[in-house]
TrEMBL record, chain A:
PANTHER family: C-TYPE POLYHEME CYTOCHROME OMCC (PTHR35038:SF8), DISSIMILATORY SULFITE REDUCTASE SIRA (PTHR35038). InterPro entries: Mtrc-MtrF-like_dom_II/IV, Multihaem_cyt_sf, Multiheme_Cytochr_ET. Gene3D superfamilies: Flavocytochrome C3, Chain A. SUPFAM superfamilies: Multiheme cytochromes (SSF48695). It comes from the Bacteria. Residues 1-25 form the signal peptide. Residues 82-245 form the Outer membrane cytochrome MtrC/MtrF-like domain. It comes from Telmatospirillum siberiense. This is Outer membrane cytochrome MtrC/MtrF-like domain-containing protein. GO terms for molecular function: oxidoreductase activity. The keyword NADP does not apply. Keywords: Membrane, Signal, Transmembrane, Transmembrane helix.
UniProtKB/TrEMBL annotation, chain B:
One of its GO terms (molecular function) is heme binding. This is Cytochrome B. The lineage of its organism: Bacteria, Pseudomonadati, Pseudomonadota, Alphaproteobacteria, Rhodospirillales. Keywords: Cell membrane, Membrane, Transmembrane, Transmembrane helix. It is a multi-pass membrane protein. PANTHER family: CYTOCHROME YDHU-RELATED (PTHR30485:SF1), NI/FE-HYDROGENASE 1 B-TYPE CYTOCHROME SUBUNIT (PTHR30485).
Length: 316, 204
């Protein structure tokens, strides 16, 4: 009996200790998160459009600052929303003027994103950007670390397309940015895609990488294909078994099992009408039956005319 | 007694056969696009969309020819169902198709220059040419320039409604075309009407 009481008291004690240490850990996490946000607010007090408008200090080089602005709203939604600025920019940014190393000694993405970088490294080597031998081309050339959002966090396929294509077009639609990477002359996107009907509409509806990468079981391949190897067969997307199902709309396909009012690939309808992909099977069947009835009706009429004509002639 | 009359001037015959050829091309390319699939399609998607776009625009131009030609020559009057006693006349024509024709009787409304279409033709052609065709062409043009299509309609992308309307109207017109080709055989002789739309001369 005494032993049982002792055991129960020990259990309560252990639970209390465990609970209080959990509470302490949660408190510590909350405090750390708050500290990160405070730091961010401090950095953004200069490095934002507002900061440039009303600089908190008089001795700042505003021209230089103008090239180093961060969109606070985008940052707060980005994959690095909860990461301290110092995590990448180091202690050099803790005081003003900042040390030279604040931008020069940025850590490699792989320091944190080991698994992802290991996985995509072989693809990346095959990418047109690496093959074109662009010395300054890094992860951040496409994925803006101050803005990039996880695909799963984005509200819709259209939002995914917006984020992805803005990165590609950022350079491929700008002579100035393009020239930062290569002395080659930039070719106009509309010219290169002259063969693609309603090109602008395509660029709003699908990602550049949906045609410019090979399909992959999960995620998107980082082996970006040059134009001569990119997909040009319309039916790859424009068919019932569209490759949109395994690319842009993969997540939606997995979520959706219903097929309202006979539409195939109905999950796309909210975003876009895609010829050959979102047709209505009930309507197809109804039209087939109607055609059969019309042909049978006319055929029957013709047959009756033929027979009655024969009978009349036979009777004469 | 044989009766011979020049019913179809050259412009109507050319317009009619341009329509027919364009419809055939639009049907083949349209089906290729609607049922697009790597193995099953009639035409390659890329080729089909080019044919459909070009023929669609040509069909629009041909419709303009129809409207202007009708106004200039007064041909539009043929398409108007004349209200006085229309129902009786329409029923006579129905009786011809479902009864009289099997008994060797002749059409109650023979084609003449003043009255080319029977009562059923008048109302059917009027619906096709003045309602269905403009709706088909407008939805087709919205497809060609989707930036002018409504952004959203009935809670989904606006092009869904445009596409469904385009398909349904086109399908109805195709059913009309099939019936039209068959019913043209209901003249005095099977070849009567076919000959007259080719030569312009109607003979019965």
């Amino acid at each position: 009996m005494r032993l049982t009481k002792l055991t129960a008291m020990t259990a309560v004690f252990v639970a209390l200790v465990g609970f209080s240490s959990q509470v302490r850990a949660d408190d510590a996490d909350a405090a750390a998160a708050q500290k990160v946000q405070q730091e961010k607010t401090e950095c953004l007090s200069c490095h934002s459009a507002q900061g440039l408008k009303t600089p908190p200090r008089a001795d700042m080089d505003l021209k230089k600052l103008g090239g180093m602005l961060i969109d606070a709203d985008k940052l707060s939604k980005s994959v690095h929303a909860d990461v301290s600025c110092k995590e990448c920019h180091g202690q050099a940014v803790a005081s003003y003027p900042h040390g030279e190393s604040a931008h020069a000694d940025l850590p490699a993405c792989a320091d944190c994103h080991k698994k992802q970088v290991r996985e995509i490294a072989p693809e990346f080597k095959d990418s047109v950007h690496v093959k074109a031998n662009l010395p300054d081309f890094t992860c951040a050339s496409c994925h803006d670390p101050h803005a990039w959002q996880k695909v799963s966090k984005l509200s819709s396929p259209k939002a995914v397309v917006r984020q992805d294509n803005a990165d590609c077009r950022g350079c491929h639609d700008s002579d100035e940015k393009f020239a930062r990477f290569t002395p080659n002359k930039r070719r106009d996107l509309a010219d290169i895609h002259g063969w693609l009907p309603s090109a602008e509409l395509h660029w709003k509806a699908v990602r550049c990488v949906d045609c410019h990468t090979a399909e992959k079981a999960t995620g998107v391949s980082h082996a970006i294909l040059p134009k001569d190897k990119a997909e040009r067969r319309c039916v790859e997307c424009h068919s019932a078994n569209s490759s949109l199902r395994t690319r842009l709309y993969r997540q939606k396909v997995e979520e959706s099992h219903i097929n309202p009012v006979g539409f195939i690939n109905a999950y796309i309808l909210n975003e876009a009408y895609v010829l050959g992909v979102t047709r209505n099977q009930w309507l197809d069947w109804a039209s087939f039956v109607l055609l059969a009835l019309v042909v049978a009706g006319l055929g029957g009429h013709g047959l009756l005319r033929f027979v009655s004509n024969r009978l009349r002639k036979g009777g004469k | 007694m044989s009766h011979r009359e020049y019913l179809f001037p050259l412009w109507i015959r050319l317009w009619h056969f341009a329509n027919a050829a364009l419809f055939l091309l639009l049907l083949i390319s349209g089906l290729s696009l609607h049922f697009a699939n790597p193995g099953a399609a009639l035409l390659d998607f890329n080729l089909a969309q080019r044919i459909h776009n070009v023929c669609g625009v040509l069909l629009c131009l041909n419709y303009v020819v129809f409207v202007i030609g009708n106004i200039v020559t007064g041909n539009w009057w043929q398409f108007v169902p004349k209200p006085h006693g229309y129902l009786q006349r329409a029923l006579l024509q129905v009786r011809f198709y479902v009864w009289d024709i099997f008994h060797g009787k002749e059409t109650p409304f023979p084609s003449t220059r003043e009255n080319n279409f029977n009562p059923l033709q008048q109302v059917m052609y009027w619906i096709i040419m003045y309602l269905a065709m403009p709706a088909l062409l407008i939805t087709g043009l919205l497809f060609l320039w989707p930036e002018f299509a409504p952004d959203r309609l009935f809670g989904v992308d606006g092009l869904v409604t445009v596409a469904m309307a385009h398909y349904i109207i086109a399908y109805c017109i195709i059913l009309f075309v099939i019936s039209h080709i068959y019913l043209a055989s209901c003249g005095k002789k099977i070849s009567t009407h076919y000959k007259s739309i080719i030569t312009g001369w109607h003979e019965d």
